[in-house]
Write a structure and sequence with these properties.
5 helices, five-stranded mixed β-sheet, Double Stranded RNA Binding Domain, SHC Adaptor Protein, 198 residues, four-stranded mixed β-sheet, alpha/beta
């Protein structure tokens, strides 16, 4: 298992790195076949106390990606360690969920999901689509992020989205080869946006 620790906006002390490494390596005993575990530590300046952000990412050998995050106010040795510990504790819970979902998937059938056409999407009451004039001319993209797209079925996409704690997930459908967007509806069900050439 590869362990990497990336501090941002501060220089990490050796004792903090040792503490973090020990915590991260313990995950291997709870979830075998971890390919990589990464800790991103960020010191974010604010008007009051600085904020410490600890983000733990686990990449499983079978391709699953699990991520947790903890934010704490203050920048001390104790705060850093508390943030690391809390993020790792959250990861244990996420791993428990991951292991439970894998076991449940072995025993259950594929959960029904559905695909929306553009017309159905526009008509969906729980997805208001703003008119273009609602956006100011000064509107601009403030962040761009590249994301890897993996080929998977709908069940795997649901599982991956839940593990990441997101409300939407981009994936390549194994059957069609097209990029789809899975999302969680307000009623708790799932929907899929499947593109087609207009």
């Amino acid at each position: 298992m590869k362990v990497s620790i990336q501090p941002q906006n501060f220089k990490m002390q050796e004792f903090t790195e040792e503490y973090a490494t020990k915590k991260l390596e313990a995950l291997q005993r709870y979830l075998p076949n971890i390919r990589e575990v990464r800790l991103d530590l960020n010191r974010k300046p604010t008007r009051g106390e600085d904020t410490v952000i600890a983000q733990v990412t686990v990449i499983h050998a079978r391709g699953a990606l699990l991520r947790t995050e903890e934010r704490l106010s203050g920048f001390t040795k104790e705060t850093l360690e508390d943030a690391i510990s809390a993020a790792v504790d959250k990861m244990y819970k996420r791993i428990t969920r991951f292991k439970g979902k894998r076991e449940a998937n072995r025993r259950s059938t594929l959960r029904d999901t559905f695909q929306l056409t553009a017309e159905e999407l526009a008509a969906a009451e729980d997805l208001p689509i703003p008119e273009f004039e609602e956006y100011e001319e000064s509107a601009e993209v403030v962040k761009r992020k590249q994301v890897p797209i993996s080929a998977m079925n709908e069940r795997e996409a649901i599982e991956q989205m839940e593990l990441l704690g997101h409300t939407f997930f981009l994936f390549r459908d194994m059957l069609t080869g097209k990029v789809n967007v899975l999302y969680r509806r307000r009623d708790g069900a799932y929907g899929i946006l499947a593109p087609y050439d207009a």
